[in-house]
Specification:
two-stranded antiparallel ribbon; 416 residues
Length: 416
């Protein structure tokens, strides 16, 4: 028990924490997530083992999204610790979520054509409506409204579970709706058309209609899951992500970044990993992060906070692992419940470790670059992970556009 003496917070620390509006470890965690995103985006093609898992499974890149959602939830608990005007707070939360959503549409909707093209612009009939920032905005607004309207704040609170009882009701309800839709909906056979504008294997002015045979219920494969069906019906197949990660499965026979014509028909189909159904469980990750933030608000000593977070994290990890063991796959593209629980647990463990290292033991100087990245995470996302800096750099070339430093790097390390 002597070791726990270092975890106790004294009166001076409490006063210091009251003066500090930001939690250093949370900024560091956000900075780590941004750095992780940059690593897997730019090095994933060189080291596929760190890129997204093609379907079932968990790789380094698959932690980025749940980490951001978890961090958003923790932040909300601090922002809305005291709400004097719920209507005003709701309006501000909706406005912020809307800004984030439409920024995501602008950055990832197809307006920018990537590092291989200096052109820009998007056909409205093919714009991608959902993406990374859009998913974060959905999780943000769900958790924010949950915190603003579903938190009971009696004068004297006993513990921190009872005041947030309805948060858990909402989380379980979202999981129940997700499970019912994913496993209960019937998926009929479906077809889609690929034109020469979206495929390099078809002749000019050509198009081809692919038929995908399903006629199943509860299938969790890439071809016949109900999540993809709902996105096709609601959003439209032309508004989905055209380069789904499942193309890296062996069945799709990917060569030089293209799916071969003798691959199964579904390998050519668009699919959005940030789709509608999976946004339900993604929002639950945000709600879980919210509960970790409540520990900060209600538990005043380091020891108690770390104990609560550790118990919560390992409970989630055990539950998620148990679901995976009984057959619910760990799948990022579907954002399955097992995936949500395991990644939320690991986010909680990571946050706890960072809290100990940065805020308790005071090794903040070691993580200052990451803390800076965390404070400017959105700007870094816009400039780097959306390729704006890359596009700007490759705008300087000699003789012809393909003679630029970015093209040389890609040719040397990615396509060699």
């Amino acid at each position: 028990m002597a070791g726990y003496g270092l975890l106790k917070i004294d009166e001076g620390e409490l006063k210091s924490n009251r003066r500090t509006s930001r939690l250093a470890s949370l900024d560091v965690f956000r900075g780590i997530s941004i750095l992780l995103m940059m690593i897997v985006d730019y090095l994933g093609s060189i080291f596929p083992i760190i890129a997204h898992s093609p379907w079932n499974g968990l790789r380094l890149a698959d932690f980025v999204m749940p980490f951001f959602l978890f961090i958003a939830g923790v932040s909300l608990a601090l922002v809305y610790k005291k709400v004097s005007d719920r209507v005003d707070a709701t309006w501000k939360a909706v406005l912020k979520a809307a800004k984030l959503f439409f920024l995501g549409v602008f950055l990832q909707g197809g307006y920018f054509h990537g590092i291989n093209s200096l052109a820009y612009g998007v056909d409205i009939e093919r714009i991608r409506w959902l993406g990374i920032l859009q998913r974060i905005s959905i999780g943000y607004i769900v958790a924010a409204l949950c915190e603003i309207w579903l938190s009971s704040r009696p004068i004297r609170e006993i513990g921190f579970f009872k005041p947030y009882y309805w948060h858990w009701v909402l989380a379980f309800s979202l999981c129940a709706i997700y499970t019912g839709l994913l496993h209960g909906l019937y998926v009929p056979d479906w077809q889609f058309e690929i034109s020469n504008s979206t495929s390099s294997v078809l002749p000019n002015n050509g198009s081809y209609v692919y038929l995908v045979s399903c006629s199943v219920r509860g299938d969790l494969g890439p071809a016949c899951n109900s999540a993809g069906m709902i996105d096709r019906y609601v959003l439209g197949i032309d508004h989905l992500y055209t380069k789904p990660v499942y193309r890296n499965l062996k069945e799709c026979n990917m060569t030089n970044g293209q799916v071969s014509e003798n691959s199964p028909s579904w390998c050519h189909a668009p699919y959005d990993p940030e789709g509608l159904i999976s946004s339900l469980t993604a929002a639950v990750t945000c709600i879980i992060g919210l509960q970790f933030g409540h520990v900060l608000a209600h538990v005043k000593d380091h020891k108690g906070r770390v104990e609560c977070w550790s118990f919560f994290s390992f409970s989630l990890l055990l539950l998620g692992s148990s679901l995976a063991f009984v057959g619910i796959p760990v799948n990022k593209s579907l954002y399955t419940i097992s995936y949500m629980l395991i990644t939320s647990a690991l986010a909680g463990i990571t946050f706890s470790v960072l809290y100990l290292v940065v805020d308790v033991y005071g090794y903040r100087w070691v993580s200052l670059p990451l803390e800076w990245m965390g404070r400017h995470s959105l700007s870094i996302f816009v400039l780097l992970t959306s390729n704006l800096i890359i596009i700007a750099i490759q705008g300087f070339y000699w003789s012809k556009p393909e003679n630029n430093i970015i093209h040389q790097i890609v040719a040397s390390f990615v396509h060699r």
